[in-house]
Amino acid sequence: MKEKHYLSPLLEPKSVGVIGASERENSIGHVVVRNMLDAGFRGRLFAVNPRHESVLGVPCHKSVEDVPHRLDLAVIAVPAEKVLTVVESCGRAGVKAIIILSAGFSESGPRGATLERHVVEAARRYRIRLLGPNCLGIMRPELGLNATFAHVSALKGTIGLISQSGALVTSILDWAKPNNIGFSTVVSLGSSSDIDFGEILEFMISDPRTESIIMYVEGIRDARRFMSALRGAARVKPVLLIKVGRHPQGARAIRSHSGSVSGDDTVFDAALRRAGVIRLYNMGQLFAAANALFSHFRPRGNRLAIITNGGGPGVMAVDRAADLGIPLSEFSDGTMEKLNTILPNGWSRANPIDMLGDADVERYTKTLQAVLEGPNVDGVLVMLTPQATTDPTAVAQAIVEVEKTADKPVVTCWMGDDLVRDGRKAFEVAGIPTFRTPEPAVELFSHLSAYYRNQKLLMQTPASLSHLKPPSIESARLVIETALAERRKVLNEMESKALLAAFRIPIAQTVVARSATEAMVLAEEIGLPVVMKIDSPSIIHKADSGGVRLNLGSLAAVRTAYQEILEDVRRNKPDAAINGVAIEPMIMKRNGRELVVGVRRDPVFGPVITFGEGGNRVEANKDLAVALPPLNNYLVHDLIKSSRVASLLGEFRTMPPVDMEALEFVLLRVSEMVCELPWITTLEINPLIVDEHGAVAVDARVTVENISPSVDRYAHMAIHPYPSQLTSTWTQPDGTIVTIRPIKPEDAELEVEFVRTLSSESKYYRFMNTMRELPPAMVARLTQIDYDREMAFLATIPGEGGVTEVEVGVCRYAVNPDGESCEFAVVVADDWQHRGLARKLMGVLIDTARNKGLLYMNGVFLASNERMLKFVQGLGFVLSSDPEDSTVKLGVLALQD
């Protein structure tokens, strides 16, 4: 029995009704019916319009409630003001899913937004899933489903297309048809008032017809679901994404078009890197990358080798590679020896390889083979300019033959027009990316190498807390609660540093003086020289207001500085509230680098961590590296490496390299703060001074806000941390210790091996078939989970013979679309049955779902699985027969009293 996805009524409907069907040429209702007929829809098609007897030969009904068949899907093509009434009728008729093509909702202003809200509320009341409004519709070519008003259709294929713009969908389809590129699914989301990217992506993960995914994004509504689904998809299927609204003007246009919030583009970029997808910036890049990825082109790294018969084009390619941060391959001694025997004496003897203008077919062939076989090469750009002794077509045919057996990507650039046209055609037929100029060829390699890098980031699922000494979370919370109780959102420097100290971040000790005499006493206690800074919640940049004095080496200087600071601040910031003057030791680090570590709140993705050059340059240099928490050592290292300041952290001029371990420690601790303190809206450590001996936070500023308590302690984050706090152990009577812990992406091989060793009977009862191994898409779905909406616990025991652990059982639940219930599954290794493990796992799972606030747990069981039926009844499940399938029993467990 094939497990049906809950969006099947929308994307795999057996019956479709077009509401607003019309005989009027080129009306939306007319085009939809025509498209459905032309596509050869395999299910039952109905038309609804009280003014027609039939539309294009399809009998027409006065109302959806008059249709003599329960509809899976209703396509609504009526004016916006009539949609609410139609949705109510669909609810009464038992329609399962609707597509609203009509415009005039949230994108049109407050009145339209109110109407949209009422429509969504009506759909939810009847448990109808809604796509749109203001969308083009959907296509499933394999099923003969074209529920759109587009004037272009899609060929059958393996690409899934999801777009917030219907116009872009038609553009892509118009390009794809003559290029013989087909689609498994095409979905235009429109306003995404109900169904958004996340749910469509989840469907495509499990859809065997979809092998790769293209996305056009303006803005997203549910960052957590988006990230979870995007990461799950990218683990098994290449995902290409265009995100628009990179600048404020574009963001405003998006809001008026779809009502979406686009957020900060640098944060979105960081999210996409973490999700393991390729971000593209224009349609040309999209089409080029689609041609490459959706054939056989797979990246493996970012080191590029360039082969050319002209020096100038080679330099152009090198310049573009430098712009994009693509390193050129450094050829090994063995590769250089081969090239010296192949090429004439005048060759460049470096990368790019200039084979000279008389390069023939043999020279091209042997050079490409030598480079592909050598180490330190992740891809090759082969370039050709038409010269007197060069046959562009013959060279192209030779490159095609070499590429057939290559395990590294090959990109080509045949420059010119008439003389190279046949050569380019040979590459197109072979599926080898080819370009007219060097720059887009290098850009393609850049995008695909970024995919390789991002796939590594995708695998990271850090816990909320690191393996380091635990922080004093309670102390940090008390500091925040005290400020909020006093109706303050800006923590003073001492409070801000108290938060850092609670998370073990080294700080410069700070005290506050409220008189010149007190300043001298405190300075002597701290030890001269000292730094003095104004302590005011109203002042962010203390130096700009005259509120900072450095390197004060005497008590007389301290007394004078106290008075000067107050006078300067009162003159420059007369309205500022002044608490006093902060005093701290003067940090003297001869080899110190001044850095900034920050936290800010993005309107879409929540808290993000920033890193870059600090001190007085932080405002001038806004080019900070950005990452989404939670972080681990790998992600911290990637964040540092991606910053502009990274080049200054190694050996620099006369300075030794900084203590990278100390810097990484601070970033890990800031990540912990972000996870565990949802009240934080901004944090800035500036400067964080790092040298060869360690790191110290010299100044810090934190702002907080009052938030309502949530059942999900990580509701403020786009990526749910690994819930390590849910790990437990269970000791068997024979002394065997079973570890029960949440599943991780790294458990993919463990899960595959577990399923492989199950008996045919166990496989059948769990998966409804006796497959030998889990398909890759299913492995990703089972191991790459969003801990907010899903939970899976593995039971493992220590392995033998070098094996760290062995999986002996697994249980899981997934929250249903209603947000109130979840569906569970459990399976135990055959040799661990009848030992109480299944009951133990289910106890842990039920407690987790109950603590999550879910109301019910559901199960679907084969009626023939009597042992399972007896087991779940013992847990308190109430069983009933499935009205649609007599071979299945349904079970429900109430989780709350």
Automatic annotation (TrEMBL):
Q: What keywords would UniProt list here?
A: ATP-binding, Ligase, Nucleotide-binding
Origin species, per record, is: Aromatoleum toluolicum
* InterPro entries for this protein: Acyl-CoA_Synth/Transferase, Acyl_CoA_acyltransferase, ATP-grasp, ATP_grasp_subdomain_1, CoA-bd, GNAT_dom, Ligase_CoA_dom, NAD(P)-bd_dom_sf
Q: Does the keyword Cell membrane apply?
A: no
Instruction: Show where the N-acetyltransferase domain sits.
Output: 738-897
State the name under which the record lists this protein: GNAT family N-acetyltransferase
Residues forming the ATP-grasp domain are 497-716
Q: What is the lineage of its organism?
A: Bacteria, Pseudomonadati, Pseudomonadota, Betaproteobacteria, Rhodocyclales
